[in-house]
Each structure stands twice: as structure tokens, then as C-alpha cells.
Amino acid sequence: MINGTVEVKKPNEDWKPLSPKDGVPPGSRVRTSADGEADILVAEKSAIRLKPGTEIEITQNQSVNGSAKVHVSITSGRLLNRFDGMPKGSEYRVTSPSAVAGIRGTQFEIAADPAQTSVRVLKGKVAVENSSGSIEVGERKGTKVAAGQAPTTPQELMQNEIDDLLECNMLNFDVVLKKTRRIATIAEMRNITMPIELFMTQNGRYPASLEEAKLGNQTDNWGSRYRYEVTDNGKGYVIISNGEDRRPNTDDDMEYRP
To answer: 166 versus 133: which is more confidently predicted?
Structure first.
């Protein structure tokens, strides 16, 4: 979902409008204007929503052996988070100018500016810390962290605050995630072509497998390893995702042919 003005700055590129087809690789910055909002897939069953006037950097976003490691830095604005059922061993961390929030499987909001960070939790628990102290924030509670000060004792949220956070659990959020996963997978398959083309330049042929191109551990946004086939008598190739059902050779398979 992209509404209003949203821009992305990928590594070694300038700022440009973010489109629904764009992938957002690690090292990318994303910012929304006063009328902009954007949903970004960051892990299996996990997404973030940038509210108007927000700027973030995705510093890490990877899946290793089924576990996700996601690190996001927020410079300013408001970020809604939905991380449901993250696999064992997964790690999600949000860094702001005055605090670090670490979670496992939760729905929460973090809002930040240079002077203060606030964390409000709808579901699950969030560990909030900085150099002055740390605290755990439980469901329907919130804390504030001023620059150079320890997090405040968590306070119960008012009903209007809880209602505000229900956006994290929107009924159509799963639909957004499905669409975003497909877009992100297409972008990743496109990125995989770069080392494959480099292999071709160095060896005069395409690799026989992703393992030969040192891409054997690459997985799609549903946690399945990509499939790869050399085509056209060695003159081309195709990269294949098993899709949402994680089974090969079914209707939701996704192919990318350069």
C-alpha cells in the first residue's frame, strides 16, 4: 500500500518516488510526506507502516534458515509494526535517536523525533533501552524516552490510544502482506540476476545451479529456496519462486526471466 508522496533512496542511488513494484533492499531509506503512507514487508508475516512525515532506514532484512533478522532505524515520524508469529531465533530491532526497541512477535507503535521516543504496545512485549537504562513494555502499555534519560515506567494506555493502535491489526492487512511479498520476491529475483550475470562474464557460461553462483541459501518471502534452470541451450535462465503455497509446479509459482 502506497498513498500520497513516498520516496525511496536505495544504496548508491538518489531519492525517487516509491512504486508498488519496488523492492526495498537493506541500506535503503524511505520517507513519507505530510500526505504519504506506505506498507513495507520486512519479514515472513511481518510488515511496517510508515505514517505521514516519517523517515526510516532498513539497515538489515534477511532470512537465514527460516529465521528473520530485521533492523530498522527511524529518524522521525510514526511507525506501526505488525510482527505475528515470527520464527524461533528471529530478531527485530528499531533504533531511534534516543532508544532501541527490541521485540519478538508483537504489534506496536514507535514515534520519534530528535528529543524523544515513545513506544506504545498493542500486543506482545517490547524491550526498550538506551545507555541510561532499560525496561520491558507489556500489552496496552506505553513508555517515553527522552534523549539522555532512561525509559519511563510503563503506563496503561487510554482507550483512545488503544483504538489508535488497532490499525496495526487491520482486517485487510494480510491482503497487503500477500501482495507485498509477491512484489518483494520479484525484486529479489531481479537482484539475483546480478551475480549470475557476473558468473557468466567470468566463466563464459551461466552457472549450472544457484549453489555454483554462491546463491544456494537465497529464499523467497515465504521461506522457500529459489529454483533455477538454465534454458535455451545455455543461452538463458529462469529463476522460480514456489509462491505462497511453498510447493513447486503449482499455479502460484512465480518466474523471472531476464
So the answer is: 133
Q: Scanning the structure block, which residue is given the C-alpha cell 536505495?
A: 10
Domain ranges across the chain = 2-170, 190-256
User: What's the fold here for domain 190-256?
Assistant: Glycoprotein, Type 4 Pilin (3.30.700)
Q: Are 111 and 87 in contact (CB under 8 A)?
A: no
Q: Does residue 13 contact residue 61 with C-beta atoms inside 8 Å?
A: no
Domain 2-170 adopts which CATH fold?
Jelly Rolls (2.60.120)
Q: How far apart are CA 111 and CA 165, in angstroms?
A: 12
**Count of C-beta atoms within a 10 Å radius of residue 4:** 12
pLDDT score at 163? 84
- pLDDT digit string, tens, across residues 83-116: 766 667 778 888 899 988 887 657 888 889 888 9
pLDDT digits (tens, 9 = 90+) for 118-132: 999 888 888 898 999
- Grid coordinates in use for 112? 520519534
Indicate the pTM of the whole model: 0.65
Q: How many residues does the chain have?
A: 258
Q: How far apart are CA 255 and CA 258, in angstroms?
A: 10
Q: From CA 85, how far away is CA 46, in angstroms rounded?
A: 9
